[in-house]
Amino acid sequence: MDYQTITYDIVEPGIGLLRLNRPQAYNAVNRVMMRELNAFWAERVHDAGVNVIVLTGSGKGFCAGLDLKDSAEAMAGLNMQDALDYQAGLTGIIAAMRKAPQPVVAVVHGAAMGLGFSLALAADLRVIAENARFSAAYINVGLGGADMACSYLLPRMIGTGRAYEMMLTGETLAAAEVMALGLASRMVPREEVLETGLGLARLMQVKNPLGLRLTKQAINTSLHAGSLEQAVQMENLTQVFLAAKAMLESGRAISTTLKDKSA
To answer: Which domains does the chain show, CATH number per domain?
Structure first.
């Protein structure tokens, strides 16, 4: 598929690199990018050739959030139902990212604001540059502070206390503060951030591909689990399934070897 606002390349076997590619607008999300990101993540559900995806932004920053000029044009003249459909298209990007079976590593430099912040939260791991800065900026544009799945993702990652503060004030956090909150896995100089993210992807790429997918699924399921027993049940099913698959494949390999010897 040809994209206008994003690029996607298989940079190494099993590793895909997705770039937000509107550097002239600090990778702000317009209607075209909204459609392309929704389509991209939907396609990954059936992509067995890629095991890890690295997400980053072109130019000076990760993503400045929603393209407010484009959004105002999109909303002009819409009735309430159409406006809700447009909003659902934006939040659908976050849901589609979470549904993607591949682990996603967000590599963040510069600004990750508003929707850009939510894109970083929707990833499974975050590697940030020393110049990165983050804001749940929704409330700063005259709207509510709960937007783009931030009210779901952020409290689960840093607790309700700081999540309330970030979402009610729209304050901007520097990279060091984000690290202190446990939101990111690594903080490195700007020139090292992409290679560090790819390094994490390589560590995962050599693992059992199905194991990676089921681990992500188990973590996501456990976030919704109502009890320890429910979380452990999901873990047990995952481990037994993977063990049975390994034994089945081992048995097939042995059977093939015996047939070859007897032939």
So the answer is: 6-205 (3.90.226.10), 209-262 (1.10.12)
